[in-house]
Design a protein that fits this description.
mainly beta, four-stranded antiparallel β-sheet, three-stranded antiparallel β-sheet
Length: about 100
């Protein structure tokens, strides 16, 4: 329990979702704006894929599917790499004393 004012948490990381339609046999995808490594969710036709089992994402830019996509599959990337500083609350506590 906090002493003094109650702690209020804010979600200062905005999530971003990007969807693409694939071509048959496509395995490599570039995520516009990049992503944080180990902080990306990948979906194929609405089903969440498992990292290291169904895809690899190790460089912050490219995602590679283990099994090639079919024609017009929908692949989505959801990640929280954008820090939303507008949600961070300013403290009214004077720490200089």
């Amino acid at each position: 329990m906090a002493i003094g004012r109650p702690i209020s948490l804010t979600d200062n990381v905005a999530s971003k979702r990007i969807s693409v339609n694939t071509t048959a046999g496509q395995t490599a995808f570039t995520v516009p704006g990049g992503y944080r490594i180990n902080a990306i969710n990948v979906f194929r036709n609405g089903v969440r894929l498992s990292g290291s089992v169904d895809f690899t994402a190790t460089d912050g830019v490219t995602v590679n599917l283990v099994d090639p996509a079919g024609n017009n599959d929908n692949v989505s990337f959801k990640h929280g790499s954008v820090t939303n500083t507008s949600l961070i609350k300013k403290s009214s506590v004077d720490f200089s004393k």
